[in-house]
Structure formats: C-alpha cells, structure tokens
Design goal:
Helix content: over 70%
Number of domains: 1
Radius of gyration: 27 Å
Number of strands: 0
Largest sheet: none
Order of helices and strands: HH
Structural class: mainly alpha
Strand content: under 5%
C-alpha cells in the first residue's frame, strides 16, 4: 500500500465521520426546534383558554378584543 492510498483512505474515513457528526447535529437541532414549537403551542392554547375563562366565554373574549383594537 502506498502513502497516497493511505492518505486517500484516511481522508475518506474522516469525511464520513464528519458527515455522520453533521447529521447527528442536524437531528438534535431539529428535535430541539420541534420540542420548542410544541411547548410554545401548548402555552398559546393555555393562554387562550385562560383568556376565555377570564372574559366569560369565547364570544365575550372576541367582543373585548374587538373593542380593544377599535379603541372603544
């Protein structure tokens, strides 16, 4: 085996390891974004439910929101 063949094999193995690491980082990042999105969505639903309860129902919440937007 020549030195050029050893170098080529080493570069190919290093390249494959780098690609595997990049894929793992990508999976972790995508999982983190997914979990964060689910948490934010659950928080938004909880806030809407809390607002409806405080306002006296969904129609009262909509009426109050429209009043706040119009300024009356």
């Amino acid at each position: 085996m020549t030195a050029a063949t050893k170098t080529r094999d080493t570069v190919e193995v290093g390249s494959q390891e780098l690609q595997n690491a990049e894929q793992a980082i990508g999976h972790i990042a995508m999982g983190s974004v997914t979990v964060l999105s689910v948490v934010m969505g659950a928080w938004a639903v909880a806030c809407m439910i809390g607002g409806m309860v405080a306002a006296g129902g969904p129609f009262a919440l909509a009426r109050s929101w429209i009043s706040a937007v119009i300024g009356m």
